[in-house]
Design brief:
The chain is of the alpha+beta class. The protein contains four helices and twelve strands. It is 26% helix and 12% strand. 12% of the residues are buried.
């Protein structure tokens, strides 16, 4: 007979280690590979090696074409939302004027009925009445109050009188935002950045990927190296050289252009949609796996 190992033993009153792993029990851990992290020389929008890179004041790098198309699309969307909001405001104003007109007509009817004992008939522009002032199969005369009740009747069994929730269009923000950091972004705040390419003999001649180095210490730039760029000239350095030389000397090490400490922008190293990269990582949801299903119910993570 085969031995009763943990992998083929399924008649116990508790889960074995192998069964817990198959059901996803406990904290799920997985080592992130290189493909999970966005390279430092890739655009935040197209995730491809950037062309004519532009950087915002928060350190997010984009292709020039990608960020211009993004800002243009945002402006068109803002114009569309503003037009919808203006149309809604105009419609609400017309409804308010109509409501005041009907209220004034009711007051006049009540005054005439109290003083003369007669109920005059008036026509509502939203409800057509026959020439004789009669409505329905029994030819009952419709007063202004009944006419208003018929116009505003909420009958769910009639398609024409089915009540509907009004669609409220909020006033949109007129400013464009950064697609990566969600802060306000204007075209004039973007500045071009310049990476120094490695042209030494150590580089393989058949390599198609570009390799960038720090112009000060000649260290190869990778995702493991913190980078900083100067908004005054656009040159990129490693963080150590920027803090050691640029902040002290107040001048760029490549073009000798004067700069200030506020011109130093730290470049963000972000992840893709499947993984993040940085110091402030926080779980936003967790999966509660069912017994034997392999599927889970996604719930928001509880703050501790």
């Amino acid at each position: 007979m085969p031995q009763r190992h943990s992998k083929n033993n399924n008649d116990l009153a508790f889960f074995t280690y192998d069964e817990k792993r198959k059901l996803g029990y406990g904290t799920q851990k997985e080592r992130l590979g290189r493909d999970s992290i966005k390279p430092f020389d890739a655009c935040c929008l197209c995730l491809k090696p950037f062309i004519d890179p532009l950087c915002c004041q928060k350190g997010h790098v984009f292709c020039k074409e990608c960020i211009l198309e993004c800002l243009l699309a945002q402006k068109k969307d803002i114009q569309r939302k503003l037009a919808a909001h203006d149309a809604q405001q105009k419609h609400e104003k017309e409804e308010e004027e109509e409501r005041l007109m009907l209220q004034k007509a009711r007051e006049l009817d009540a005054f005439d009925q109290q003083n003369h004992g007669a109920v005059p008939q008036y026509t509502d522009k939203n409800h057509n009445q026959d020439k004789n002032g009669f409505h329905g199969a029994n030819s009952v005369k419709v007063t202004s109050y009944e006419e208003e009740a018929l116009r505003t009747m909420k009958a769910f069994w009639l398609p024409s009188a089915t009540p509907g929730a009004p669609l409220k269009v909020e006033a949109p923000s007129t400013g464009t935002v950064c697609p990566e950091g969600k802060e306000k972004l204007k075209l004039k705040t973007l500045f071009p950045i310049c990476f120094i390419e490695d042209t030494s003999e150590k580089k393989k001649p058949n390599s198609l990927d570009k390799t960038y180095i720090c112009p000060s210490c000649k260290v190869t730039l990778t995702n493991a190296v913190s980078l900083a760029a100067l908004s005054s000239c656009g040159h990129v350095f490693c963080k150590k050289c920027a803090e050691k030389f640029i902040i002290v000397d107040k001048v760029c090490l490549v073009c000798d252009k004067p700069c200030k400490e506020r011109n130093l922008v730290k470049l963000e190293k972000g992840g893709t949609g499947f993984a993040a990269h940085g110091d402030h990582l926080e779980a936003t949801e967790f999966k509660h796996l069912g017994s034997g299903s392999g599927l889970g119910l996604v719930r928001p993570a509880m703050k501790t």
